Each structure stands twice: as C-alpha cells, then as structure tokens.
Amino acid sequence: MNVRKKISTALKVLFILIMIICATGFTKECTKGALNGIYFCAEVLVPSIFPFMVISVFVVKSGISAMLGKYLDKITTALFGLSGKCGMVILLSVIGGYPVGARGLTQLYEQGELDKNSAKKAAYFAVGAGPGFLLSFVGVRLLNSFEVGACILTSQVISVIILGMANKYIFREKRTYNSKNELKNKYSSLTDAVVESTVSATYGILEMCGMVVAFSAVGNVIRSLIENDVIGKYVDVLLEVTTACSTLAKGRNILMIAFSVGFAGICVHFQIFQALKNIRINKAVFFLYRIIQGLITALFTYIFIRAFGVTLPVFSSVQDTELSLSSSVLGSGLLVLCGVCFLYSIKKNKYGGN
C-alpha cells in the first residue's frame, strides 16, 4: 500500500470515528445541527438550485449546448480557451448554484462533447452560488439588503471570469476532441431529455442535501466545543457556506460573507468532487482556486459597496471589518502565500488528479 492509499484509508477511518463520536457523544448538538441543515435544504437550497440542476443536464442531453456552442465558441475561446459548448455550462454555474457547473461539465464529457483536459480546465473556475441564494437568502433574508446581495453576486461573477481568463494562460494544453464518441453521440428527444435531466438532478439534489445535513451536524458539534467565537466563525467558513453566511450575518460581516461565498466550503467541494469523479481534478489546485476566488469576491464586494455607498441598518461594524481587512499585513502575506502555493502546485501537478 503506497503513501497516498494509506492517507486515504486514515482519512476514511477518521471520518467514521468523527461521525460516531458526534452521533453518540453529542446527541443534542448533532441533532440541532442536522435540523438546521434540513431547514436550509428545504427553505433555501432546493428551491434555488434544483431547477438549474435540471436545466444544466437538459441543455446537454437535448443538444442545446452543442447548438449554442457554435455561436459562443469565439467568445469562450477568446476568454477562456475553451469550446463554445462550455459556454452554457459556465453561464449556468454562476446563475444556478455550486454543483451545477460540475454536473454540466460531467454531462458534456460523458456525451463525448468535451475532452478531459478541457473539462478539468473549466471545472477549476466554473463554481459559484446562484442569484436565488445570494439575492434572496444572503441579501434580503440575512442582511435585509438586496443591494448588498447584488454586490456579492456581481463580485462573484467577476471572480469567475478572472479565474477563467487566468486559466487560459496557466493551462496551455491544446484542446482535443473525442471524435470517436462524437460520431456515436445521439441527443435525447424532448421527452427523454426532460425525464433524464429531472432524474439526474433529483439524485444530485439528494446527494447535496445529505452532505449539507451531515456537515451541519458535525459543524454544530465542533462549534459547541470552541469557546472562541472568532475561531468558530472560521470553522463555519471552512466547512459549510450556508451556515457560515447565517453566522456571519449576525455581525454584519459582509466581507467575510463574500469570501465564504467565493470559497464555498468543504461541503460544496466534496459535492463537486463527487460530480467530477470521472474527470478527476487536482483537489489541491481546486482548493487554492477557491481561496483565490474568495479573496477576489471579497475585494470587489468592498469596492462596489464603497463606490455605490451601499449601507445596512447597522453598518459601522462592517466598515471596521472592511478597513482591518484591507490594511492587514497578515492578510496581504496570506494572499502572497496562497499565490506562491498556487503556482507551485500547478507546476508540480498540471491537471493531475490526486
């Protein structure tokens, strides 16, 4: 057994032990966290994400992505160095929700319309929360401000575009084509495409909700053991984005919410890894992309809030947070460190799965 397999086995055992401890030793905290996860799924995630998951599969199964790809090819090639068939998936990734882009790319790859290198290349940046989550839940419900939600949404779209454009120059492998698969490719009829996309999205939403409930339960147990509230918030940001946004909104910490949205949380990372299991992206590179996306999203959120004078009923604490983040030497050092690690990781593992 090599080192990688040993580490993988150790992590699996550790995960099982954590779940057993949470379920038996912290029943009350675990139950409360699980119930919170169920609430988020029913009230926020399913209504805002499920329709777009259906659409993302439908546009591939029905052949719409191939049809529109002819018109989008020049744009996506110029911006991202990718086939026009990725255009609809990239668009859906920023308006549909976190797993939507990954599921769409997987469908393109399995249909033979996208080679593995291009699918990996797009998977690193086609990640984002949808308008339903950012405008309705984060903006209106949590922060009581549609404008702040719009600032975060716009910043996220910009971060996706910036990362996609950077990808074009970082990963210079030429596009290849699965010509053998393309010759055999047959698109589904309207009826079949609707049924197949709905079934696929249903499985996907169940996987997503299961992950959210599990991470919410474990996260609530961890929070109960941490006395320091600041550290607890960082744990939320690391683990699960919905819980993180809810916690951070109590202190009107807009920039940390924006970072959390860009970073997405390990719960979302796992969902995307599952959706991309046949493509096998480099998980370390993906993680670094999410850190950079979080920083870019927070930066542009700050710029838009200052430029347009967006305010909240309690905004002074947000301003204090903004100033400390924008002038922090530690924050700048971490940004540089992330960039160095990012470039080193790419040099060592171009596209390779881990």
The share of residues in extended strands comes to under 5%
The whole-number mean of residue pLDDT values reads: 79
Following the backbone from N to C, one meets helices and strands in this order, namely: HHHHHHHHHHHHHHHHH
What is the CA–CA distance across the termini?
16 Å
Count of DSSP H/I helices: 17
The dominant shape is globular
Explain this structure:
This protein has helices spanning 3-25, 27-61, 64-80, 85-96, 98-110, 116-123, 131-142, 146-170, 179-184, 190-225, 229-239, 241-249, 254-263, 266-275, 283-308, 316-326, 329-348. By secondary structure, the protein is an all-alpha fold. Helix 3 (64-80) packs across helix 4, helix 5 (98-110) packs parallel to helix 14 (266-275) and helix 7 (131-142) packs antiparallel against helix 8 (146-170). The chain is globular and about 55 Å long.
